[in-house]
Amino acid sequence: MSTTADDSVRAIFASMDYGPAPESAEAARAWLARHDRVFGHFIGGAFVEPVDGERFATVHPGDGSTLAQVAQGSQADVDAAVAAAQQALPGWRALDPGARARHLYALGRHVQQHARLLAVLEALDNGKTIRETRDIDVPLVARHFYHHAGWAQLLEREFPGYHGVGVCGQVIPWNFPLLMLAWKVAPALAAGNTVVLKPAEFTPLTALAFAELSLEVGLPPGVLNVVTGDGRTGAALVAHEGLAKVAFTGSTEVGRAIREVTAGRGVKLSLELGGKSPFIVFDDADLDSAVEGVVDAIWFNQGEVCCAGSRLLVQESVAARLEDKLRARMETLREGPSLDKAMDMGAVIAPVQLDKISRLVEQCRAEGGRCFQPSWAAGLTAPVGDDEAGTATRGLYFPPTLLADVAPASQAAQEEIFGPVIVSMTFRTPAEAVELANNTRYGLAASVWTENVNLALDVAPQLEAGVVWINCSNVFDAASGFGGYRESGFGREGGREGMFEYLAPDWEAALPTYAPGELTTPAGADGLGLGGDGSGGDAAVDRTAKLYIGGKQARPDGNYAYPVLAPGGARVGQAPLGNRKDVRNAVEAARKAVGWTRATAHNRAQVLYYLAENLAARAGEFADRLRVLTGTSLDDAAREVEVSVERLFFYAAYADKYDGGVHATPLRNVTLAMPEAWGVLAVACPDEAPLLAFVSLTAPALAMGNRVVAVPSPRWPLAATDLYQVLDTSDLPGGALNIVTGVRDELSEVLARHADVAAMWYVGGAEGSATVERESADNLKATWVNWGRRRDWFDREQGEGREYLRRATRIKNIWVPYGE
Ligand code: NDP
């Protein structure tokens, strides 16, 4: 080797500089050229012209060059796509599960065969690096279709008594365009549904390429339809009356709007929204690994990741050391053209996103936050390419950024920045770490770093997040559910839990609607103030109930009661007319009763057994009471009590058996899928079978560890208020079950709006169902409403079962890696 060559090798070793390593864009350019760089929608198995003929450009964020013109979907286009999906539904549903599975399998195969085209196209349309699209996005897409081919194959065996919901409208964002498509389309098709998908305005190309692949594999026309366009197209899709299911990933703001638009329509909904996920480093963590974890957490995909670890919480004693290591690592990151294989980061999606990131960073700096960016950051503003017209353009690059000494309440620490920016804070104790971690309205993911597995597994259940990664970050797999707590949305994508989002129980679909007049609204306050002793002033009045809050009987705030009438019109008692203050008190009591959620499943089972025994001991008295209240025969009343007792036994039995699983993810991980209680769960009961319906709705919620606020049958609330003594003698802790009587729909509206109620079940009229869904949008609580359909509470399929337990919980997936 000559001296010069020797020197240059030496220089390379010294600088560790990389030369350019560009991936060829040939496959993608050829594909675009084949379509003359102009696309229509994909409807009914063919590319079709947009009805209005409107189009817009999709550009490469790395240099601003135009890649193609795509169609702007109008109402008419959305109508056509939904009609195609509806038409294809019966045939797709009727296919043998094995045949459906083979279609999904073929899609997975074709994704692998066209991996290069898809990876390059994705990198061009989104600006992310080829290293990520090639090694992460596309392999995960293929994996998703293979995994769900399996669910399609096993559907009848693994989900007996369930069927696909119907036509699904799916709206996805721009950060993982093809992967989000896979997360939505694969389970929908596996469950026997057909789909209309709207990709994000910024990134429609890989969805169109995928649609073309679906033609190649012979997917029946109309099973998958893609309508491109901006937010207006998305809005037209989610408002469409022809949908049975809407699935959305994107901002919390749009998720909230979609919750409102779909309210009361009998549409199943899953929302995967924003996040501000904590990345917690304890003092015994392997700090070098943690640094690589931070790189994966916040600089993967330029930080445009809903579950990005964007809040670094470090134990004080190691904070300075970790920061030093992190700053050194930031210097070695590389950012630039997305098709350069040696790049760690590419361009952010669009000028609007770059502005948002810059604004939040500047604001944090102005508020006194220390801002660190690598020394090479200054070079990022240089022009980086030519657009189609040959004009020099700037790529939309934002450097990796660390904001330290940030106040937990500041905007940078609370708002989703959706860029390569991490804010750091310190804590002293594990309890403080948990408190800081949960100090957010979101709850998508969390990452915990410690070499102490006991500590990790102690902290993980305390974190309000749908996914917890221990000593790892941003790992995903089709076998493991992904989705949020709190304002990060509800529903899961992936795994067994994700399949339920596209299925419905057969019994639920077959229910009749309530007959007119079957549901009542109490006349309201009849002017009868509760007497000083709470016994009412009417001699004919049998008994005046109170509310039950925090384990104690409580007078209603308004001091009003309403008459409870037997079918013949005779007054059989009075019930308190609860108001919003009473609801607030009940929720407050439930919020505090965390001991019930923390109790072991065995303990909860014991209490439910005890309740069952105590009710059984007083069966005659309860039956007689029900007979007088509802006018039913004594035999029927006795049966209602008997079935109520059985139901308590049923859920007592299940309390320690409805447990989680370990997902078989292909990485070196055990992934623990743990069903967790929601926390405070509100329940509104129908009128009929007043004791049995009350027990059927509250017992599963309690069995799973929820603290319940229940509105019993407004017509016959005494069936529930008579239970107070049974509750008192059954060791149920105060606040675990709270009862507020009154007007169901009024109280339900308050409960649906309440920020501390995490989930709500409503069984009543169609209008009340719509109100609950609409009003729940504010804190994005999960709801289960009956849309005005009547259940037979005596029927074991309709009145009890695992569907109730599933609805009483949400799955947290905890990833625990193993090996050295
Ligand atoms: P949006 O929530 O607006 O976009 C997500 C998808 O919804 C896109 O397909 C969008 O269409 C569509 N959409 C927009 N408005 C409606 C509507 N009213 N009804 C139905 N669909 C609609 O996110 P943005 O792209 O505007 O990003 C804004 C912020 O959202 C980001 O800064 C980030 O904080 C967050 N975000 C979170 C994501 C996540 O994964 N959790 C993903 C993306 C963004 P179109 O693209 O044409 O606007």
Distance between the termini: 40 Å
* Percentage of residues in strands: 15-25%
Tell me, rounded to a whole number, the average pLDDT.
Answer: 94
Number of strands: 33
Principal-axis shape equals globular
Segments where pLDDT lies below 50 for 5+ residues?
Answer: 386-392, 524-541
Largest sheet composition = 10 strands, mixed
Structural class computed from helices and strand pairing = alpha/beta
Please estimate the helix content: 40-55%
Molecules bound to protein: NADPH dihydro-nicotinamide-adenine-dinucleotide phosphate
The radius of gyration over CA amounts to 29 Å
Q: Going across the biggest sheet, name each strand in turn.
A: 13-16-17-12-11-18-19-33-27-26
- DSSP helix count? 30
Task: Please name the defining characteristics of this protein.
820 residues, alpha/beta, ten-stranded mixed β-sheet, six-stranded mixed β-sheet, 18% strand, globular, binds NADPH dihydro-nicotinamide-adenine-dinucleotide phosphate
